[in-house]
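Teaching note: in complex prediction, the entire set of molecules is handled at once rather than each chain in isolation. The prompt given to students was simply: 'Predict the structure of this complex.' The entities are:
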Amino acid sequence: MKSIRDSVHGDLQLEEFEVKLVDTPEMQRLRRIKQLGFTYLVYPGANHTRFEHSMGTMYLAGRLALNLELDPEKRTLVRVCAALHDAGHGPFSHVSEGVLETSHEKLTSRLIRESALGDILSERYNLKEVVDIINGQGPLGQIISGDLDVDRMDYLLLDAHYTGVAYGIIDVERLISNMHLDGENLNLRRKGVQAAEAMLLARYFMYPSVYQHHTTRIVNAMFRRCLGHLLKKEALHADEIYRYDDADIVSTARKEKGYVRDIIRRLDNRQLFKRVYSLKLDNLEDPMAVFHMNEASNRRSEQEMAEDLGVEEDYLLLDIPEYPTFNESTPVSVYGSTKTLGEVSSLVVALEHARFNHADLSIYMPEDLAPQVKGFSFRDYLDIPP
Amino acid sequence: MKSIRDSVHGDLQLEEFEVKLVDTPEMQRLRRIKQLGFTYLVYPGANHTRFEHSMGTMYLAGRLALNLELDPEKRTLVRVCAALHDAGHGPFSHVSEGVLETSHEKLTSRLIRESALGDILSERYNLKEVVDIINGQGPLGQIISGDLDVDRMDYLLLDAHYTGVAYGIIDVERLISNMHLDGENLNLRRKGVQAAEAMLLARYFMYPSVYQHHTTRIVNAMFRRCLGHLLKKEALHADEIYRYDDADIVSTARKEKGYVRDIIRRLDNRQLFKRVYSLKLDNLEDPMAVFHMNEASNRRSEQEMAEDLGVEEDYLLLDIPEYPTFNESTPVSVYGSTKTLGEVSSLVVALEHARFNHADLSIYMPEDLAPQVKGFSFRDYLDIPP
Amino acid sequence: MKSIRDSVHGDLQLEEFEVKLVDTPEMQRLRRIKQLGFTYLVYPGANHTRFEHSMGTMYLAGRLALNLELDPEKRTLVRVCAALHDAGHGPFSHVSEGVLETSHEKLTSRLIRESALGDILSERYNLKEVVDIINGQGPLGQIISGDLDVDRMDYLLLDAHYTGVAYGIIDVERLISNMHLDGENLNLRRKGVQAAEAMLLARYFMYPSVYQHHTTRIVNAMFRRCLGHLLKKEALHADEIYRYDDADIVSTARKEKGYVRDIIRRLDNRQLFKRVYSLKLDNLEDPMAVFHMNEASNRRSEQEMAEDLGVEEDYLLLDIPEYPTFNESTPVSVYGSTKTLGEVSSLVVALEHARFNHADLSIYMPEDLAPQVKGFSFRDYLDIPP
Amino acid sequence: MKSIRDSVHGDLQLEEFEVKLVDTPEMQRLRRIKQLGFTYLVYPGANHTRFEHSMGTMYLAGRLALNLELDPEKRTLVRVCAALHDAGHGPFSHVSEGVLETSHEKLTSRLIRESALGDILSERYNLKEVVDIINGQGPLGQIISGDLDVDRMDYLLLDAHYTGVAYGIIDVERLISNMHLDGENLNLRRKGVQAAEAMLLARYFMYPSVYQHHTTRIVNAMFRRCLGHLLKKEALHADEIYRYDDADIVSTARKEKGYVRDIIRRLDNRQLFKRVYSLKLDNLEDPMAVFHMNEASNRRSEQEMAEDLGVEEDYLLLDIPEYPTFNESTPVSVYGSTKTLGEVSSLVVALEHARFNHADLSIYMPEDLAPQVKGFSFRDYLDIPP
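The expected output is the structure of the full assembly:
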């Protein structure tokens, strides 16, 4: 048994097999990947890593498995899947995902098959089963990746602890002690409904405060464009993204010239683009239209606006907010019958409508160029109905 | 007024002049310098930065200044000095200091004079005064750098929060509300003595748990030697150390070959050296002898041992523990008369004797070489009396 | 200056005038009145008192007053009103209110006029002004008693801390720093809307978990009926209720015979009535009908059921849930224009509909009598449409 | 399984047998006994009860038992003993103990034998064994009542949480995970020594801050004398003390006349005696002399002083501080060999000497009488060498 001191969950115990997996370079790399990417430019404490999140998720998976009365072999399986679920994440986590064609889940599956992780896992488990669970299949998969999964529980707690934003505090004990396995599904007992509502709300509140904080969105947009350049120039390789850490990207960018170097310098010095235009989604007749906008046409709009404003390419960034899903569709049954949380809780339904409360389509530009946009009709360039 | 959300202290308010200083590249660099260097390999949560510590120290300095009834101009001066006190820190904080000839205090002074920081400060203050305060001179200096300074208060709280080690929790309110200025000195009132004892004890407990945890010492010894190589090869420049961030050092090391590359790979993959020998200081007749050992002769001993063991140079590391000072000598007066804490508190005296409780001189080697040291008499190579 | 250590807010500072008020027997009595009445039978930690709440509310009122830039005289006025706002509470707080004809606000006003509190207050303030503020009148009154008042902020934090139910955690800093006075109203800035939503949700979650927890409702119903007997027998005097403390009621009840003695013995030994019938409000066509039920007819229904079941009077208790209001109607303006929170936040609207999620009309009886109710049609006795 | 939400430890699980014990009137009475007596007059949050402490101690005992790998039957035994260990406490806890001839441990043993507790326990365990464990005998007894017992762990955490005094925070996880059973003794592993030091220090710091805070001592001295009168008058019966709760004592006292009524009125209104004389123990050649002073002679000194000052009997109170023991003598072995903590830790030795740092012999009188003591030589009346 080995013990790791976690600043959120206390002492975490690992058995020998788990230690072997955690000791691989693949897992150790996660110590050098920030959980929230560049969010540390907004919340100075947000330097926590995918590694800590992986350990926390493993711990919560173990607690839930114990409560579900899984046998020790299955319990370790679930713990191990939880620990590995983010192993394929690229540097700066979700931010890098935006410019890749493959999701981090697929990259995780590939990494597991190709690296020492696969060899170690094969000693005790079927690789396909591991990958399926990580991808949320079957009742064990719902533990790792479902509407009320341990992944979410852990990142909400962690992100609250490290940003200092209190909203992420959730009642893990009540959630875990009120879940049970009912054949094919992970079910919630009536007594856990409120804790589930509170968890969905916690996530709702974390969006505008942290994940989609307007400054977070600016730094992410800047970095994403910068990363796009690096990939196009082949300074980095998209299919190797899960081998890099945050420092690799930053130091590669610093060695470049032109746009990439300028953007990384701006991020280093926190000389950020500013929002020069904001279109609130809840003012649109059909807010969904924004999410149906075409990537190619968005880039064209960007170029047209930049041209008409006399601004260099990629110094005007059009940013679509992340589409938040709160209408929990996965069959999380309650009361024995298989209702969804949405059917049981009017609050969960409300989140469906509240989702556009704080969201907007934004346009960013360097601060010194901002004055010249006065009176410019950004709206005319956007291909969305009123 | 701008506000920063700190995960330990809550919302911190900054006035315009302070924002200007904080917005300089020099201060923003601190966001990329880990407060505890490689300690994140021991405590996965220990990724907090010098930037967060600088903001926290500024905040506490402001609270203390308010309590001391300093006028607004002086209060801002003290806050600003607190914010800048670590600006000259090299990457990985204190770890890099070990291989440099200049202290981080001197580097801070130099940086302030040479960079934009100096220009901004000169608008309102005398640069020499700022540097003197940062160096702990005069009553205002004692706020930043004395036995009960706000620097220590903040780092104890921060390090406790991020490592999850409870010992660093101190009663900041009681400390601050019981300090007063008495002419040339920052004094403590009787009612604050216990909070002061508790703070010194907190530091005492943090040594073996965090700062001098045996694994922390190993990674620091490995990194220090690696950094020494980088400086000797002039891959990095010692007098520019305060311009680099953590990623610069790591990526520079990764591009090297031989020893440097091997060590950085080991640190990345957490394949650490092991302790093959330990000499407990409290078993020595004169524990102080260890601290009088000569750096040159230590390196000679290392080489002799390595040779006799058939181990390559720098793959056997001799590590002297940090010398902890607890007998608070600075004139912190109590009860109006100028006693020292040591004269008032028998616990503080006890710490003087307790300091070697946990310390040892250690020798580290790669794990795979460890078996061949069985029966080897390390003690004979050490130039210390029994 | 005097300092009180508060386990939620830290050290609270009181000036001399405030100390004089707090040192009166009227304020000291609040140390002996539990904030949550008999809730300690459900949450063993819920022993906190009206006194601690009064001090916390005073503290938050002072912080808000400072943020609103009120002058020192007004700031003390607001603090003092906050400290006194619950001085007229009877033993076991809101529970006793249920059987009285006068509200605790009116009793507070009367107490202030009749006791030493009035004399002390008159030294500096106009008594009518104090009473008006406590009753929520004018912009200063909204600080103490409005939709986002400091009273609520404090009790949510306090109740969360002492019950261990995490939901009550709110972002007091963000709320307070985003309020401003705009002529006649206390307004919220756009940046504070989310913190306000979160606070209303916190309250929403605390209802079923704490304030209307089904066991809390049972003990409250038992105690209320018991108190009714004591008042009818004139063992206690309703118009003197604000002179008693919790121990007075309990020891008076213990000296009685019959019903009163039996109920207090049951509460002492936690031998509680059980719920034998539950009618979920969200299953009714018009949930509001329950709140329109007539007190006299409810008592009649109780008697009829008791008779038909062969149960002694008052051993069958019909309990209507508390009517929770979440549609914040007071003019809390946002964005400068005077919208209400409900107009700005779809979540606040959702709470309006969610309010009956967890509520039910209940009937309680002693556990040993519960078996004989099997098959009994409670529903037929209730005068509410389907 | 039943679950209790504890505000310090989270959800505590109880099995059916434990629930039966906890549901007895004897255990429920502890909900109405304040853990820290009248300390709520000093720390307004200190209203926590022996019940919460009993549940917390049971929980920690279970965790330790699990770590010691006791079988389920023994584990429940240890948990149950922990839950009952304070069942014989009188009202206001330790304060009432001062005037009784029997210790609360003896009263607990008697209560267990005489009440329903004994009947329930006998279903599964030998009563003598239970009582022996509660009294600290054998290795299981050391879990409940030894130098590093779970009783202390819990009350330090609890008292810190409810008073808001940070010093009581201890590393329960490290302590528990480093204990092991070695034949007859509960031993500590080397890795737990620091956590043990920290726990002893926590207790050391809680003495002057909470347990022996000078105002706590005043209210305790007042209440003790008042209780003495009640017992002498037979308004209460000493051998029935474990049947009363806090409210019984208070309401009995309120019905009395003269001294008793006056003192309870003073406690209710917080019109406390003041310290008119203080003799610091560390100024004495032999501080221990104070603890050898004879109770009878102390009362005589009191009477002589009162007479010479023209003060009524019992309105001048001579108060000896509690004798704090820190030199842990019980054989807590470390490193396998049976050293004591004192032999291993120089800090523990230091506490031995530090113990009189803050202690003094005090004399208290009502505030209005205090002026007339000016110049009075209290020292001359005390029968202690210089």
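Point out the following to students. The longest helix of chain B spans residues 193-211. Chain B touches chain D through 24 residues (CB under 8 Å).
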